[in-house]
Amino acid sequence: MELVPGKTTAQAGLHFKVLEKEYVLPADSGRLDIPVIIYNTDPLLAEKAVRIMLQLKPSGDFATMFPKLDSAKIIFSNRLEKPLWWEIWQGELGEYSRVKHELFIRVSGAKQLTEDRTDWQATPKVLYHTRRFRAFLANPQTWVAENPEEGYVVTPGANGTLEFYHSENTAKKYILTRNPADGRYYFTDEDGDPVI
Fold it and tell me: Which of 8, 29, 142, 179 has the fewest CB atoms within 10 Å, i.e. is most exposed?
């Protein structure tokens, strides 16, 4: 197995552990798991995704006959990417942004929603999470006051802003800016737009 140079953007040693020269398939097996150890040390992974493209190579014992089936692609970053379930429940969640996704996970406690709208048993749970999240976005201060067990606080920030964060993680703060048109506070996403 080897990296496909033109299709691999991740750097060995920086983004992942250097792969072994070869891996041995045990005599009593038709399957081998290849360990790919990913590193979270490059700060640029918060801004972009990188890719590892692997291709099986023939050996003295095994041939490779199906190039499209003999390869694997691993894409990773240190940021949230838009999940399929967001598209499915966009009517409840609204437009996607990474900041909105982070806030949804923090407030709802759900990391994933069902990807099947026909599962009538899952719909009430999804609606619980999405409507709780919408109530939070509408008034974060009220949500914090009504859910003290969650451990989040809203404190005054600079220039009339507010800061939302977990009391045990003061390093990760979300800024709320007051909109003079309606008097409400809004989070700002990665593009500088209000999170609604």
Answer: 29
